[in-house]
Amino acid sequence: MSERNAVEQQYEEQLRGPSGSSGATSYVLHRAKPHLPPWCGVAATGLAGVFGHARWANSAAAGVGLTLASVALTGVTWWAGKAGSQQRRLHSAITVAAATSWCTAACLAGPATGPLPDLYLMGGPAVALSWNVRVVMRRNPDAAGHGSDSGLLEKVGLARAQIGAAKVEPNRVTAPVTLEAGRQTNNDVTKSLPLIASALDLPATAIRYTPNPASARRGELVIVPEDMLAEVIEWEGPSRLGGSIAEPLVIGRYDDGSPLRLWLPGDPEAGRNSTHLLIAGVSGSGKGDTALNVLTEILSRQDVVVWMSDPKAFQDFAPLRPGLDWAVEGGTGTEVMVEAVKAAIPARTRWLGAHSYRQWVREAAETQTSRDHTCRPDGQPCGCPGMPFLVAWMEEGANTLRALGDDAFTGIAQEARSAGIALVVSLQRPSYDQMSTSTRASLPSVIALGCDPRDEGFSLPEAVLDAGAHPGAWGNRRPGYCYLVSPGVPDDRYPSPGRTWHFSSRAISAMEVLASWAQRNGASAGPVTAQAAAGVAGQLYTGRAAPGTPAAAPATAEEDDMDHGLLVDPEDADLDPEAELPECEPGDDAPLFGRETGRKPSPEEARRLFAKALEEFETEGRMVVGPKDFTDWCDAHGYSRPWVSERLKEAALEGRLEPTSKTGRWRIVPALADA
């Protein structure tokens, strides 16, 4: 654009000229000025022939000198033109060769000898006019811009590619690119993006290329000359307080200043699917601020509830905790929450299907007063309470995956979207040794922050990386810089970097106010979701605290959930605490030093004692148990561990226990769940 403006300005200056005269004669002279140099060259060539003939007529030595000078001048012209285009180089060399050849012949034989005057009168104007044509074409702004762009592409190995008319926006230039048919593909452009950035003296993340899905040789080149993300902007509050979760969540800005938007529920009218979200980035990349941006936007909406697990004891989210519907700090509580989400999926999909919803929409959160969404057979409005959107947030997901297995979220990720549930998983490195491939494939949305260059493929799709995305260039040096890939976001925005708002200590009071607002105005889980959660978690699920009531104190961490080093005897270090206990062997009931012999109670007493043990666990809120949880109980009551292992199997057959996704762990079915 700057070169084009310079050409136009130079042309206008040539037209105005230094003269201040007016009238038709002055106008014609000023218009003719740019075209005079070639004609002056023709006249100078003719005069050179006349004066040269007067001095060197019939001189053999002059003929040799003039011939050598003609060849040398033509060669110098060809050599000097290598920096320009091939067309201009050839045109200049032919012009010099023709002029010097005619001048040499005129000097030796005479300008009026034989065909020399006819060649001069016909060839001279033709050569001059050819240069006039070049001047006219050079003044064409479109031609000038095209030539500049072609030169750029030629430098990076994309000669013969063409750039169309560019679309100029604030801090963003988008230009269509057409490659040479049969010789170049869109892959050639993606491989040349670093070279284009080098030619323009811009960072690699400022150049992106979006291929046209309908063509292998067409696409759009996007250039963002100024990085508008360098300035840190602090969070100033939610974008739509009191709005719907169906509206976009504004969590930051792109590098051209436009808002960074994210949608969680789907929209059948817009053709957008519901989604799950992965937040990934190395330590120090701004993952905490990004999570706060997403969570504050969610809590500011009035038709959504959040269940959150944070093994870091809500270090970053403490001011927002009162606004959460359910919050646990890892360990057994997280196991129970995962099982509760699994139980809520069929209950919610059953409700949506009964009310003629193919997916969750904002009308599903309202009282059902429409004939189109009724569960009554007669078609009359049913008046059922609405069912809000549910966000299941697993902070520090790597911790939970280590405890429950790499496929702990697979079932939820594959089935929850149709139930109006969004799964949010936050972790540093979403590699396949931490998260199963099935789970990763079921998380269609990702906020990819800075990472190790070798881990880029774990966070972003290959097509987005090919288009110019490069989160490995940031690492932890630019907190908050990210790429957003999600339904509802235009495809050409995927490789565009953004940056989330920053949360400083000054934001704590505003977050506390937001949590208080959510307590008073936010949605409750609703009878469908609450009953499903209570049926799994029992007393562990209480729902959001009432306004003015502090959030429930975190449960004391269990000893087996804490990491205090080696707490077993060396000879027992290799034992698996989750493995089933072996069958009784002779000698198991032999008396120990200072203790009485272990005994086998009667079947009736066994059922009573074990039922009492399960009731104790349920009262304490420990709804997921395994063999290791009964170690202290066995010691306290004097029973052998093989006996307990048998009772666990019997309780599972009787329906008092349900297996979980982790082998050797059982979920207690609340005693009053059926009621």
Detailed description of the structure:
- This protein has 675 residues and is α/β, with parallel strands linked by helices.
- The chain folds into four domains: 14-138; 142-223, Threonyl-tRNA Synthetase, Chain A, domain 2 (2-Layer Sandwich), CATH 3.30.980; 249-540, Rossmann fold; 599-675, Arc Repressor Mutant, subunit A, CATH 1.10.10.
- It has 20 helices and 18 strands.
- The chain is elongated, with a radius of gyration of 39 Å.
- It starts with a helix and ends in a 7-residue tail after the last strand.
- The model is unreliable at 1-5, 141-148, 553-573 and 585-598 (pLDDT under 50).
Comma- or semicolon-separated keywords:
40% helix; 4 domains; Threonyl-tRNA Synthetase, Chain A, domain 2; Rossmann fold; 5-stranded antiparallel sheet; elongated; alpha/beta; disordered N terminus; 10-stranded mixed sheet; 675 residues; 12% strand
